[in-house]
Amino acid sequence: MKGRSSDVYMVSGGVTDFRKADPSRDFRLRVKDAFDYAINDVNLSVSDIDGSVSCYFSDHFMRQVMAGAMVQDYLGLNPKPSKRLEGGGATGGLALQSGFQEVASGRMDVCAVMGFETMSQVNTWKGNEFIALASDTDFDYPVGGFYTGYYAMMARRHMHEFGTTVEQFAMVSVKNHGNAIYNKFAQSPMKITVEDVRNSPMVSTPLTRLDICNMSDGAAVAILASEEKAFEICDHPVRIAGIGGGTDTMRLSDRPFGEVPLLPNEKKSDYAGLKYPGLHSFRAGRMAAIEAYSAAGITDPPAEIDVVEAYDSYSSAELQAYEDLGLCRYGEGGSFIEEGKALLGGKIPVNPSGGLIGAGHAIGATGVMQSVFLFWQLQHSIRKHFGSDKSQVKNAKRGIVHTHAGTGTYEAVTVMEGVR
Amino acid sequence: MTINPKARIEETEGSRVVTNVDPLIVKEHYEIDYLHSYAQDSEFFRQIGKGKLMGSKCRKCGYVYATPRGHCMMCGSETEWHELPKEGKIHTYTTCYSGSESFLNEVPFHLVMVEFKGVDSLFMGRLIGADEDDISIGMDVKVRFRRNLHFSATDVYFVPSGP
Fold first, then answer.
1. Contact across the interface for B73 and A254, Cβ inside 8 Å
2. A327: closest CA among A318, A359, A419, A377?
3. Residues of A in contact with B104 (CB under 8 A)
4. If you measure CA to CA, which chain B residue comes closest to A23?
């Protein structure tokens, strides 16, 4: 099957708690803590690891170049093979896929994927500047210079195109802050209401402070293994059933107005007259989903996906992702959240961990963190790791991890399946 | 040859400020000058001085870009310069009340994506001359240019077309 030359499993994962600032540990120690959590959970040792993929977003945050090599060094993984992977906000999601490729190719039997970011060494506004440097620095950065502004313009266009409301965006924030209450690693657990979200300070219309995730210091590690090793290492490995990627123009202004790339359960007539992706939707996410679902044999996503860890850097981005990922049709994202389908206990719980809004966003660590949370869902080990099974999705068998870079400039979607 | 076991480094005033003792946190300053070339997009910035907003048109497939690019994303062919209309419509917008450090003295500001008749892609700019509540999708806007060029994409901005 495409994208799957031999079966690859996730066998363990570890994360540090995500915090606004964690100056008592540097990035190496944070990765070490997440790595030790992962190997101790399954009785692996450093000598069992054949190599690694490390990942972080920006050298600007720490002004330490080749920080990945320093992690490899600190963990005692030298002189085994390693590399650093970077892809904006999708960094961790792409690194997981790179680790998958290391194992699927037969190069490694056991591969550690190690994501991290230290964002607390600069103030929030400087952090926003570093993030905005991941937009075209000739035409976008000098004019907008602010990712929230870019996503806000997309949210506004989604409202115009489909009638989505700011209250529906806010419901995503309420859900994710609320789910984070049951996740002991999470940075921003909060019991809030739609009114609280709308009344919090306006950042970039229509998005308020509570529609937006926080910057974090944090690390996350995923251990991947070949089928042969997976069942030696772990009683409940989780199979990586398919990986997918998609891309789009760096500049939002260049997005075309074409046709929707269809999922197997959609028809061209579903979207008559819809100019796509324009600024309302993320074509890269749709393409990533199509590729990943094809590899995993998924033909009816709403019926075949039980749980999603989605990239909710903004509440609006999660709502848009429901549609890109085919959890519902384009234009139905607003009703999907409003009808409770994305809630714990809903049809397809999205971000039971709290996502980026609830758990935090240490950019390079984020996609790996999401993968670890999904892995625990599919292992049915949420109680063991979160200290509560309130957010364990009952009967979760198959799930997806979804990550964004830029304004959906790179996206990565990975399908995972429990085998217990 | 000099062997001096009593040698000592010169004592100077350090530039680092200690902000915390345990863990030890020090504040460091960093700044840099770049000599940035606009390269194949240089003409866009030069033409603003002549009162022209230049996009690109693909020489092969004819796709027209409001934001210039040297090669076409549809077919890979080279583009040529193409003057854009002086009026357009708002495709989407936002008002930023916060932003990156370098823009904090400019907030709040309005960002708009502008569509031009006969042009296939959009152009992002700032809008002035309107309050947040006055802005809407579909609103007519006019292109304006700074007189004192900053040689930045902000040399172009938009104002409402008015009645």
1. yes
2. A318
3. 125
4. B23
